[in-house]
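Thread amino acids onto this structure.
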């Protein structure tokens, strides 16, 4: 842990911590702190701003966990999330004994609301891409022996802003808009090699291993206050199933799905996993960010036209079934930047004809997105009116 403008000593009475500098949080227990202020010191201001925007609206009560969250405002005006009673259920006597043992810790003596804010800044406020380990990845769909890992999103533009750009784009002059094309590509690149310390592109959960009381209080903070992004239907099922036993799945509030379709069977595969993983096991999702990537080949493009096509109907049904979730926010952008890219220039004219006949125009993409989003949020609107 690095301390600015001072040395780590028993005489420290006031300490400002930047979350990116915390390496061994358990050391805080031994400091006679009177004041503890946690700030976000992100090298990329755009990323910090994205985190504030994305999580300023997390709220509401969770019937599955019996906890609730509400917005709090810092003196700077930034909105943060206060998670109340967010710890996991524990034996009362054991919990009380642990709390009494840690009663002298300046950190653990803080009010629960302040501790929850500290936990949030250390473990939350990110988009986390779930992916297969590069060393094990063998394109074997459904292979449960392949390990899953994760990478923190480095895309500076929020999903909300991308949705605004998508909706406001001039639909008369373009098929696609550049800002939505393969926008999370760099998030999957491995970080620079380092000899020690936590990886820069991964969440640091060292805090949860510092002591049992902190684990009891904060073990679900990173599930509740991060967006989990998944771009493969098999990974979606594996990730959710792996968190079902300890009911960690019920703590997940924010989900990003990057759905790639090439033909009818890929839509069916995604639809099946959405039924099994999302609708049955992620029942607390309130913020849903969708990205539809259309990559077609000549053998399937003839069923992909917008008007009256089987693909359009199937894709609409696949997304609209997510309206069963208690959604407060939903976005959907559509990317077909790789639509029928010809490998042989001699067939360019043929591909141009296919594009004119079957590719969705930007106006059609915008219409489809609005229709799906209206359907996703209609259930919540009906509840509010009642």
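Threaded sequence (386 positions):
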């Amino acid at each position: 842990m690095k301390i600015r403008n001072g040395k780590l000593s028993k005489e420290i009475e006031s300490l400002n911590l930047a979350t990116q500098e915390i390496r061994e949080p358990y050391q805080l227990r031994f400091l006679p702190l009177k004041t503890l202020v946690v700030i976000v010191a992100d090298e990329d201001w755009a990323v910090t701003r994205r985190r504030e925007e994305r999580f300023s609206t997390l709220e509401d009560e969770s019937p599955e966990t019996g906890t609730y969250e509400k917005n709090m405002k810092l003196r700077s005006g930034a909105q943060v999330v206060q998670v109340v009673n967010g710890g996991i259920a524990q034996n009362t006597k054991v919990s009380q004994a642990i709390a009494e043992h840690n009663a002298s810790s300046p950190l653990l003596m803080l009010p629960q609301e302040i501790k929850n804010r500290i936990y949030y800044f250390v473990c939350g406020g990110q988009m986390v891409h779930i992916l297969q380990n590069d060393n094990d990845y063998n394109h074997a769909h459904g292979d449960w022996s392949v390990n899953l890992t994760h990478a923190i999103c480095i895309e500076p533009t929020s999903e909300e802003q991308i949705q605004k750009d998508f909706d406001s784009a001039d639909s008369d002059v373009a098929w696609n808009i550049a800002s939505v094309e393969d926008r999370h590509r760099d998030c999957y690149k491995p970080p620079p090699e380092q000899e020690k310390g936590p990886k820069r592109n991964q969440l640091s959960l060292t805090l949860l291993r510092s002591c049992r009381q902190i684990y009891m209080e904060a073990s679900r903070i990173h599930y509740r206050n991060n967006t989990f992004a998944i771009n493969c239907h098999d990974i979606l099922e594996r990730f959710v199933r792996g968190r079902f036993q300890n009911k960690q799945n019920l703590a997940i509030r924010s989900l990003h799905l990057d759905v790639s379709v090439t033909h009818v069977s890929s839509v069916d595969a995604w639809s099946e996993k959405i039924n099994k993983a999302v609708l049955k096991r992620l029942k607390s999702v309130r913020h849903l960010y969708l990205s539809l990537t259309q990559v077609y080949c000549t053998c399937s493009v003839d069923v992909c036209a917008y008007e009256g096509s089987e693909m359009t109907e199937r894709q609409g049904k696949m997304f609209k079934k997510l309206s069963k979730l208690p959604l407060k926010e939903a976005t959907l952008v559509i990317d077909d930047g790789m639509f029928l890219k010809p490998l042989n220039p001699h067939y360019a004219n043929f591909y141009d004809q296919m594009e004119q006949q079957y590719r969705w125009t930007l106006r059609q993409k915008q219409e489809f997105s609005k229709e799906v989003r209206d359907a996703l949020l209609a259930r919540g609107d009906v509840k509010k009116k009642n």
